[in-house]
């Protein structure tokens, strides 16, 4: 029985020369329907190169952190190339994908003694011209590496992939949890597979199956049933396997209009592609059989009904320090104002809206200074669907550049730079305004200002699943709020063009499978 072996110690392929492994990453989760596009310059704002990658990401709960940990413990000679990650935003430009793919390939070609490449990609990048950007990156790196050396890929649980995506990969692994608290583990799984492959201990083969099922991101939390039961079945298959077996059940990303959007099952085995395909097919059929339950595991509220329920609950709540958490999940750019407008309309106080993305408002508050009253046009800038831009008067409570390292379980240790930031009091509602896109998923969004989430009655978040790792144990109640933004819960409202809607549930008839 082999699933996730301990980190191998010491290189064996030479008495004197350690393995030399390149590491690189390009990560973006693209909402293809958003008008704002991420350029090469945007990626460059957060790009790391060479030793910077190791210095910044060593010890972090990230895929690159996992790569680094395993390789350093095994005395591997690391060749860090480039790493950049923008998270969940809009499309990328063709130029950005091409330039980073070319940079990785150039780095690989320059290393004549390279033994393999560990590559971190999301799986849901979207550009105007590349139907499958991750495939383009993998193929470009493979052409530079040659066919005889392993290229192993780590992916996001929300990646959209198919067999063509990975045709030039030796093996691939994806997060198993959402919230993504196992990103470091995913990097370790990939790196261990690399070392065992180089030592001749295993010969990885893989297979993918796609059930033809889409779910909105809010329904992709891996603790929700029946999704949790499907993942547990995959883990049981791994535990019962006598030979190396690794299973990644991927929910996909329904807001990228890609031909391969939706669930995937990815299975890696040791030299047994038929078994890998049989396992992937079995779990894919199980996903199809649960498609209706997967598409609606809990109630979704309107902004009005969620605020009403929270306000009513506050009158009967027995325990102080347990806020009502309202998740404006359809907001993909962190500048939606539907819930903030509703709170202000009702005169709600002791509420908080952390990490609202509005660089102009943050700068104006900074220029006004702490203690000043400032008139702002707040939020609703990213698109016509982001809600009304609010004309408000706010008291500046703090303003200045802000950066920190994540203390929560999701991306623990990861550096975050919010840029110019302001903490505002808007008629009793605490709003932190940031210049760089960042999700408020744990207590850091409050702690960086000396606040605590327990001090508020209502908290507005824009996360999809990652907030659950922190807030499920803290919140009096969590309400998922649907608004007319680009990440709606009803996927039938999205204007897909690349995705063949005749072949996926819930867009297609039942007979589509």
Which features does this protein show?
2 domains; eight-stranded mixed β-sheet; globular; disordered N terminus
Could you describe the 3D structure shown?
With 513 residues, the protein is of the alpha/beta class. It has two domains: 275 residues, Glycerate kinase, domain 1 (Rossmann fold), CATH 3.40.50.10350; 186 residues, no CATH class. 28% of the residues lie in helices and 24% in strands. The protein contains 14 helices and 17 strands. The strands form three sheets. An eight-stranded mixed beta sheet has the order 12-13-14-15-11-16-10-17, with helices on one face. Strands 2-3-1-4-5-6 form a six-stranded mixed beta sheet, with helices on both faces. Helix 5 links the parallel strand 4 and strand 5. The longest helix has 17 residues.
The class by helix and strand makeup works out as: alpha/beta
Oligomer: single chain
Number of domains: 2
Strand content: 15-25%
Ends distance: 34 Å
Summed over residues and divided by their number, the pLDDT gives a mean of 89
Helix content: 25-40%
How do the strands and helices of this protein lay out in sequence?
Layout: E1 20-30, H1 40-44, E2 48-49, H2 51-57, H3 63-73, E3 77-89, H4 94-109, E4 116-121, H5 133-145, E5 151-155, E6 171-174, H6 183-198, E7 204-209, H7 227-240, E8 245-250, E9 264-270, H8 273-289, H9 291-294, H10 303-316, E10 324-328, H11 338-345, E11 351-357, H12 359-368, E12 373-378, E13 390-405, E14 415-426, E15 429-434, H13 444-447, E16 458-461, H14 468-471, E17 477-481
Parallel strand pairs: 1-3, 1-4, 4-5, 5-6, 10-16, 10-17, 11-15, 11-16
Antiparallel strand pairs: 2-3, 7-9, 8-9, 12-13, 13-14, 14-15
Helix pairs in contact: 3-6, 4-5, 7-8
């Amino acid at each position: 029985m082999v699933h996730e072996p301990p980190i191998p110690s010491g290189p064996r392929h030479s008495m004197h020369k350690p393995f030399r492994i390149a590491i690189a990453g390009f990560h973006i989760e693209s909402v293809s329907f958003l008008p704002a596009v991420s350029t090469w310059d945007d990626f460059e704002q957060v790009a790391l190169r060479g030793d910077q990658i190791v210095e910044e990401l060593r010890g972090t709960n990230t895929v690159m952190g996992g790569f680094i940990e395993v390789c350093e413990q095994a005395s591997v000679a690391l060749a860090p190339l480039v790493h950049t990650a923008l998270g969940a935003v809009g499309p990328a430009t063709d130029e950005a994908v091409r330039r980073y793919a070319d940079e990785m390939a150039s780095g690989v070609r320059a290393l004549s003694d390279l033994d393999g490449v560990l590559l971190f990609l999301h799986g849901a990048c979207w550009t105007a011209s590349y139907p499958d950007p991750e495939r383009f990156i993998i193929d470009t790196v493979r052409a530079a590496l040659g066919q005889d050396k392993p290229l192993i890929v780590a992916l996001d649980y929300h990646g959209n992939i198919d067999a063509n995506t990975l045709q030039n990969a030796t093996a691939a692994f994806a997060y198993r949890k959402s919230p993504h608290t196992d990103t470091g583990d995913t990097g370790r799984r990939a790196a261990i597979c690399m070392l065992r492959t180089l030592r001749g201990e295993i010969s990885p083969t893989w297979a993918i199956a796609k059930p033809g099922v889409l779910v909105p991101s809010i329904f992709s939390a891996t603790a929700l049933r029946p999704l949790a039961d499907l993942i547990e079945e995959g883990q049981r298959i791994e535990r019962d396997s006598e030979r190396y077996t690794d299973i990644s059940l991927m929910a996909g990303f329904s807001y990228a209009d890609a031909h391969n959007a939706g669930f995937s099952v990815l299975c890696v085995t040791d030299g047994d592609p038929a078994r890998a395909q049989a396992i992937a097919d079995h779990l894919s059929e199980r996903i199809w059989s649960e498609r209706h339950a997967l598409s609606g595991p809990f109630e979704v509220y309107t902004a009005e009904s969620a605020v009403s329920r929270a306000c009513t609950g506050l009158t009967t709540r027995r325990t102080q320090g347990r806020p009502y958490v309202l998740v404006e999940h359809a907001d993909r750019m962190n500048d939606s104002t539907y819930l903030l407008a509703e709170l202000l309309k009702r005169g709600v106080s002791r509420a908080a809206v952390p990490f609202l993305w509005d660089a102009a408002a943050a700068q104006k508050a900074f220029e006004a200074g702490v203690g000043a009253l400032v008139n702002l046009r707040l939020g609703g800038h990213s698109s016509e669907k982001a809600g009304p831009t609010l004309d408000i008067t706010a008291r500046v409570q703090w303003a200045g550049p802000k950066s920190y390292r994540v203390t929560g379980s999701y991306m623990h240790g990861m550096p975050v730079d919010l840029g110019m930031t302001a903490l505002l009091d808007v008629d009793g509602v605490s709003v932190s305004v940031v210049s760089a896109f960042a999700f408020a998923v744990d207590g850091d969004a409050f702690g960086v200002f000396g606040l605590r989430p327990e001090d508020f009655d209502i908290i507005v978040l824009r996360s999809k699943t990652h907030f659950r790792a922190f807030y499920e144990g803290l919140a009096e109640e969590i309400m998922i709020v649907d608004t007319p933004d680009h990440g709606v819960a009803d996927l039938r409202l999205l204007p897909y063009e690349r995705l063949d809607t005749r072949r996926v549930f819930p867009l297609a008839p039942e007979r589509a499978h």
